[in-house]
Specification:
CATH superfamily: Thiamin diphosphate (ThDP)-binding fold, Pyr/PP domains
Distance between the termini: 41 Å
CATH architecture: 3-Layer(aba) Sandwich
CATH topology: Rossmann fold
Number of helices: 8
Number of domains: 1
Radius of gyration: 15 Å
Helix content: 40-55%
Strand order of the largest sheet: 2-1-3-4-6-5
CATH class: Alpha Beta
Structural class: alpha/beta
Strand content: 15-25%
């Protein structure tokens, strides 16, 4: 058995976006909003190719919060994909799901952390968790592919079965260094 677990860890090192997509599909997520992001690119591609999922490209992250609330009212589970720099763009709008008790699931790729080359990403990278928690969003964090899958499974349960507002922060080390 230990060899199998080791094999699963190795597989998830490269395949976590596919596992993440399958996890969200198993949670009956049928709507996805996103601002284009290299860290989410595989997941975005998989959702965009899925004829059973409605996808929205956002001009700003706060639109995704309102769209997710509308999707929930229409009977659909939604996920919003964004980068940590976008969290600051939607802080005011997060009062909608927090106060109205709509389920919310955010997957946030982190910047401003491990191996960051852009100094402009550092301040919001440092403030992301505290900003989300300050407005009432529960924050979970994952640093490995295995942790991410387990964390998103739990986050989906908390969001969709307990009407919680959950953000999963995806550590920059898992994503790797951005290349320009």
């Amino acid at each position: 058995m230990p060899a199998q677990k080791g094999a699963r860890v190795r597989d998830l090192a490269n395949e976590w976006p596919i596992e993440l997509y399958e996890t969200l599909k198993a949670a009956n997520v049928r709507h996805m909003s996103y601002v284009p992001d290299a860290g989410h690119s595989t997941l975005i591609k998989l959702f965009n190719e899925d004829p059973h999922v409605v996808s929205n490209v956002l001009t700003t992250e706060e639109e995704g919060v309102a769209i997710a609330a509308g999707a929930w009212l229409g009977g659909m589970r939604s996920v919003i994909l964004m980068q940590s720099s976008g969290v600051g763009n939607c802080i005011n709008m997060l009062s909608l799901p927090v106060q109205a008790r709509f389920p919310l699931l955010l997957l946030v790729t982190m910047r401003g952390e491990w191996d960051e080359f852009n100094p402009w990403q550092v301040p919001m990278g440092k403030a992301t968790q505290a900003a989300l928690e300050a407005v009432g969003v529960t924050v979970l964090r994952a640093e490995t592919g295995v942790d991410l899958i387990e964390t998103v499974e739990q986050a989906a349960t908390m969001a969709y079965q307990a009407d919680q507002q959950i953000a999963v922060l995806i550590g920059q080390r898992l994503l790797g260094k951005k290349k320009w």
